[in-house]
Amino acid sequence: MKQRVQLFFLVCFIVLAAVAARSKPAFMDRYNRDPMAKTELHNKCTVCHIGRGGGERNDFGEAFEDAGFRITPKLRAQFPDKFERETAERH
To answer: Using CA atoms, how far apart are residues 34 and 50, in angstroms rounded to an integer?
Structure first.
């Protein structure tokens, strides 16, 4: 019986890990790779979504979709709270 319980928890862990790995969309990677993206916002669903787990998009998420899911200079200017300011080194 103890082995069945352990097996059950192991299977649950594997399933949850697989779901978590799959739920991180490629769009988050696009934000994370942007050189001006705030590092404290990396891997945060709330960059684009209302709430913690995705679902309904916030204003940035809607604008990101409208931009073809690309980070553009216009998007950065429109949402300065999501990006670092340009430094002299980046000119």
So the answer is: 21
| Rg for the chain, CA atoms, rounded | 18
Contact 91, 35 (CB under 8 A): no
pLDDT digits (tens, 9 = 90+) for 25-77: 889 999 999 999 999 999 999 999 998 777 899 999 999 999 999 999 999 99
Count of domains forming the chain? 1
Scanning the structure block, which residue is given the tokens 């097996």? Answer: 7
- Could you tell me if residue 66 is inside a domain? yes
CB atoms within 10 A of CB 69: 14
Token pair for 68: 């073809």
Written as six digits, the tokens of 70 are 């690309």
pLDDT at position 12 over 80 = no
**What is the domain extent for residue 80?**
25-90
How many other CB atoms sit within 10 Å of the CB of residue 47?
20
- Residue 59, in any domain of the structure: yes
Residue 5 lies in a domain: no
